[in-house]
Design goal:
The complex is a heterodimer of chains A (149) and B (155).
Chain A: E1 15-22, H1 25-35, H2 39-42, H3 44-48, H4 59-73, E2 80-91, E3 100-112, E4 118-128, E5 133-144
Chain B: E1 14-21, H1 24-34, H2 38-41, H3 43-48, H4 58-71, E2 83-85, E3 88-94, E4 103-115, E5 122-132, E6 138-149
Antiparallel strand pairs in B: 1-4, 2-6, 3-6, 4-5, 5-6
The chains are: A alpha+beta (149), B alpha+beta (155).
Chain lengths: 149, 155
């Protein structure tokens, strides 16, 4: 399958699956120190006593990793023009040190921009570790149309 | 809202979380790790792109919201009530590009409190969160959700 390049190459129901991103404890703690320094993302003992039941990474880190996977496998092969936003994001299960994340993507909707040579593609990103689904992110990136500016 | 139990969080309470100035180095550093698209990464390529210059990843813009929320003691602390764990968020909008040198002001407002049957020792707090540029232009918004420990278990 060749990677989609332009807005016209995306179709409702299209699916992609890729990725094997290992989440190390070092990266969990480094991300938390910078963006989400709560005890349950930094410290094993504090995390045991939290709702997470053990050290787990920030949900924002899970989103960032999903973005990295989508960038490497879709966006950087296409005329991607950024994102309009995220309709819904669910952090379903904790992501822990040693988890390996992969992404399953399904195209839910495609909509041309009313005036500009662009189109909106609504995608569902299902994020899995080696055991189960850990997150679901429904978002809307923007792609150039064929022959667009 | 530092160290508050669910019962003590006031519906409608608004708080400015703080300001953050995005540098080019930080924008590029985040992009290199998590969002390596040319318009986040490479000033030359970004200059020729539709954005006319480098812009921050939207995930970077929203991660800084979290940073300032934790710094404002909205998240979990070692001694306070258990909080800071979230089931997700809704309606995140990246409305305007955030460029190097821009100073963004982040705020939060409590818009809903929900008692939880499934977790009687916690309540859910929903917030509307905003990021604005120096001229007050809204650059990002989203609806956040967080579990906060209750003083007394719900029915």
């Amino acid at each position: 399958m060749s990677a989609p390049r332009y807005f016209e190459d995306f179709h409702v129901g299209q699916k992609f699956a890729f990725g094997a991103y290992e989440v190390t404890k070092e990266e969990i703690v480094a991300f938390a120190r910078e963006f989400d320094p709560q005890p349950h993302h930094l410290d094993e003992d504090a995390a045991k006593d939290s709702l997470l039941g053990g050290l787990a990474t920030s949900g924002w880190h899970v989103c960032a990793i999903a973005m990295r996977l989508a960038t490497d496998h879709i966006f950087n092969h296409a005329e991607a023009r950024g994102g309009a936003g995220v309709e819904d994001c669910r952090w379903l299960k904790p992501v822990r040190p040693g988890d390996v994340l992969r992404l399953e993507v399904e195209v839910l909707d495609t909509r041309p921009h009313p005036r500009r040579p662009l189109g909106f593609v609504t995608m569902r990103w299902d994020v899995f570790n080696q055991r189960e689904q850990v997150a679901r992110i429904v978002n809307t990136p923007i792609f150039a149309t064929r022959g667009g500016a | 809202m530092s160290g508050r139990y669910w019962e003590d969080i006031e519906l409608g309470a608004k708080q400015v979380l703080g300001q953050y100035t995005f540098t080019e180095d930080e924008i590029v550093g985040f992009a290199r790790a998590y969002d390596p698209q040319p318009f986040h990464l490479d000033p030359q390529a970004a200059g020729r792109s539709f954005y006319g210059g480098i812009i921050a990843s939207g995930w970077h813009t929203v991660a800084v919201w979290m940073k300032l929320a934790v710094a404002s003691h909205l998240g979990a602390t070692r001694d306070g009530p258990r909080s800071g764990v979230s089931p997700g968020f809704e309606d995140l909008r990246w409305l305007k590009p955030v460029r190097p040198g821009m100073t963004i002001t982040y705020s939060t407002e409590v818009i809903e409190k929900v008692a939880l049957k499934s977790r009687p020792q916690y309540g859910l707090v929903k917030s509307r969160n905003e990021a604005r540029g120096e001229d007050g232009t809204l650059v990002m918004s989203f609806i956040g959700k967080g579990f906060v420990e209750r003083k007394t278990r719900g029915a």
